[in-house]
Amino acid sequence: MSLITKQASQDNASSAQATPEWALQAARYLRARQLAAQAQLAPLAANARVAARQGVYGARVWGAPRLDAMSLAMQEQVAPWIAAQLAAYARRVDPVQAKSRRRWPAVAAGIIVIGGGAATVYVLSRRNSGAGADTEELGEAASSPDTEREMAPADAVGADVNGQTQTT
């Protein structure tokens, strides 16, 4: 260690002992100043507290009737308009119900109806063409007594619209 370093460390040791004394004096002085300021400001703080309470109370006394009147005015004038706007917006936002994707029952019913109609037409056409073909094949259509009676004009006794005769 050099001579300069040794002296510096000794100076630091002596100043370290003096620092606590100086710090204690500074702390005492600052505490005394704090107490003096607190004694001076305590009445001012109490007055400010009272004034703030009175100010808040006055503001509440002044504001309460005005807020009440404004709430009634808004309820009668603005609220219906806002409610209508919200309802219109809700209708616009509401998603449209998706159409049912189950179209096959309707398609199947349509196919069944069309098939039933086609089968009826086929059966009726076969019946009409089959009845005429059977009598022509036999060759008895012109000479048959049953067909002559069916094709004969109505008697004086009377006939209905459907060709049936009535007896009295």
State the major sheet. Answer: none
Bin the strand percentage.
Answer: under 5%
Determine Rg (CA atoms, Å). 59 Å
Q: What series of H and E elements makes up the topology?
A: HHH
Q: Multimeric state of these chains?
A: single chain
| Overall spatial form | elongated
Mean pLDDT across all amino acids: 76
Distance between the termini: 161 Å
Give the helix proportion (percent range): over 70%
Instruction: Count every helix, treating DSSP H or I runs of 4 or more residues as helices.
Output: 3
How many E strands? 0
Identify low-pLDDT runs. none
Structural class: mainly alpha
Task: Give the topology, please.
Blueprint (H helix, E strand, L loop, with lengths): L2 H91 L10 H35 L6 H7 L17
Comma- or semicolon-separated keywords:
mainly alpha; 168 residues; 0% strand; single chain; 3 helices
Provide structural commentary.
- The chain is mainly alpha-helical and 168 residues long.
- Among the domains are: 13-85, no CATH class; 113-152.
- It contains three helices and no strands.
- The radius of gyration is 59 Å and the shape is elongated.
- The mean pLDDT is 76.
